[in-house]
Specification:
Elements lengths: L5 E5 L2 H14 L1 H5 L2 E5 L9 H7 L2 E5 L4 E2 L13 E2 L2 H5 L7 H4 L7 E5 L2 E6 L4 E4 L6 E4 L4 H8 L1 H6 L5 H10 L4 H12 L4 H9 L11 H29 L1
Parallel strand pairs: 1-2, 1-3, 3-7
Antiparallel strand pairs: 4-5, 6-7, 8-9
Helix pairs in contact: 1-10, 8-9
């Protein structure tokens, strides 16, 4: 972290395993830079805030909404849900209510200085067309794994495997609606082994063509742009010095 161009903080093992592949394929400047990726083991990124602020380093935090209504629930607007995520509550965007966190236009970027910004990326609603040709339905993912599934329904409806992979396939193929699929995925994820799931997906045919969940894609696009801007500013400073 002390010598990195930027930092990416992720919650779990699945994100840590998938992101390098997404970055190498779609985000050239991030892939070329010296970017430190840290798995923080849950919604504990806020514990690194003092160090991030001290270093003044560009940071992307990929985290979960962690919706609660007495207990963990699928995120929904208008239900009076709150987040259990301390990063979102105490670092940025300093909001507690799910309705606030999912409000259109919420600012996910904390601007400290010109070269030090922090951005959060968390699950947002996904427009899903399933089965193919059916009317669009809105899905609200609970975590990274179901966001990935809602973004790649055909892939997961055909993917062979055990554990969570099998439960995902059954949830997608055996449901009458996206809402029913979401409820089944939510229950599966509460007990499933996510690292095993990630390994099965990483080794599957067609993995290289998976679409990145929108909340992560937006975050990585932002980071890509920040690194491009920083490179231009550094080059401009060097050229000015030569003169």
């Amino acid at each position: 972290m002390f010598f990195a161009d930027a930092v990416i903080l992720v919650e779990g093992s699945a994100e840590r395993m998938f992101l390098p592949n997404f970055i190498a394929r779609d985000y050239a400047r991030v892939n070329q830079g010296y970017v430190s990726m840290l798995e923080v083991g849950g919604s504990h990124a806020h514990r690194l805030k003092p160090l991030i602020d001290l270093l003044g380093i560009t940071t992307l935090i990929i985290t979960d909404l962690d919706a609660q209504l007495g207990e963990a629930v699928q995120p929904k607007v208008g239900e009076g849900q709150v987040t259990n995520n301390d990063t979102l509550k105490s670092w940025w965007p300093k909001k507690t209510e799910i309705d606030e966190l999912l409000a259109p236009g919420i600012d996910k970027v904390l601007k400290q200085t010109a070269l030090h910004e922090v951005r959060v990326a968390y699950q947002t609603p996904i427009d899903v067309v399933w089965p193919e040709g059916a009317p669009t339905q809105t899905a609200m993912p609970y975590t990274f794994e179901d966001a990935l599934a809602f973004t790649n329904m055909k892939f997961f409806s055909e993917l062979e495997g055990i554990g969570l992979v099998a439960k995902f396939r059954e949830a997608i193929s055996g449901s009458a609606s996206v809402a029913e699929t979401g409820a089944k995925l939510f229950q599966a994820l509460r007990k499933g082994v996510k690292a095993e799931f990630a390994l099965n997906v990483l080794g599957a045919e067609g993995f290289d063509k998976l679409a990145v969940p929108a909340y992560i894609a937006d975050g990585l696009a932002w980071l890509n742009g920040q690194l491009e801007k920083k490179q231009i500013e550094v080059l401009s400073t060097d050229l000015g010095g030569d003169k």
